[in-house]
Structures are given as structure tokens and as C-alpha cells.
Automatic annotation (TrEMBL):
Organism listed in the record: Pristionchus entomophagus
Similarity field: Belongs to the nematode receptor-like protein srd family.
Transmembrane segments: 6-26, 78-104
Keywords for the protein's UniProt record, in alphabetical order: Membrane, Transmembrane, Transmembrane helix
Gene Ontology CC terms: membrane
One Pfam family here: 7TM_GPCR_Srd
Main location: membrane
Descriptive protein name: G protein-coupled receptor
InterPro entries, per database record: 7TM_GPCR_serpentine_rcpt_Srd, Nematode_rcpt-like_delta
Species lineage: Eukaryota, Metazoa, Ecdysozoa, Nematoda, Chromadorea
């Protein structure tokens, strides 16, 4: 009901906005930021992938003693449990890539502050 509508609204806006960021990374940019654009593309792709997986798997996590029960009632439930867990695994993998890329972006920014621009080969 209202939770599903809120979930769909947030994930669709995330897909749209991250799609715009991804599009912006393919526009011409100054030479000094071209190598950093590679990291921005990776981040935008990971965020779009995470958002699509979130949209497909609307889930509820129920704690039960020493374990968790995942109840998935999103659009993936039309295709079966395997599809839901595939989207769930995709969501976790894309979130991991986004986190690792965030750390890499911080390192690249530090490198740029300390040594100037960074070459695409270093990235």
C-alpha cells in the first residue's frame, strides 16, 4: 500500500537522477577531470543497478530467533523465488561496488589534491 508506493517513488526517482548523472558523464568535460569521470561512471552504473534491483525486490525482513526471514512481494515475485533472490544478490553486489568505488573516489581526490591531476591508467 503506502509503503510500496513510497518505495516505488524513491527508486524511480533514483533511477532517473542517476541516469542523468550517467548521461552527464558522457558529455565533454575538462581535460583535468576526464580521468575522474571514469569513477563517476562506475558509481552511476552501480547506483542505477542497485535502484533497479531495489525496484524489482520490495522485501520485508522479519527477525526470527537467530535468523531472518525475507518476504519479497515486489514485481520479482511474479517470476518466482529464484528471480527475487537473483535481484537481491544483484542489489548486494552493486551496493558493494558502489561502496568500494566511493573509497576509490576518496583516494583519487586525495591524490589530485596532493599531486595534481591523475591519469586514466592510474585509475
Amino acid at each position: 500500500p503506502i509503503e510500496a508506493l513510497l518505495h516505488i517513488t524513491i527508486t524511480c526517482s533514483s533511477i532517473l537522477l542517476n541516469g542523468l548523472v550517467l548521461y552527464a558523464t558522457f558529455l565533454p568535460s575538462p581535460k583535468s577531470t576526464r580521468s575522474y569521470t571514469i569513477l563517476m561512471r562506475i558509481q552511476a552504473l552501480a547506483d542505477v543497478t542497485t535502484s533497479v534491483a531495489f525496484l524489482a525486490t520490495i522485501q520485508r525482513t522479519i527477525p526470527c530467533a537467530w535468523s531472518f526471514i525475507l518476504v519479497q512481494y515486489g514485481p520479482c515475485s511474479l517470476f518466482g523465488g529464484t528471480a527475487c533472490y537473483t535481484f537481491y544478490a544483484l542489489m548486494i553486489a552493486a551496493s558493494t561496488v558502489a561502496f568500494a568505488n566511493l573509497l576509490l573516489c576518496m583516494g583519487a581526490r586525495f591524490w589530485m589534491l596532493r599531486f595534481g591531476s591523475i591519469s586514466p591508467q592510474r585509475i
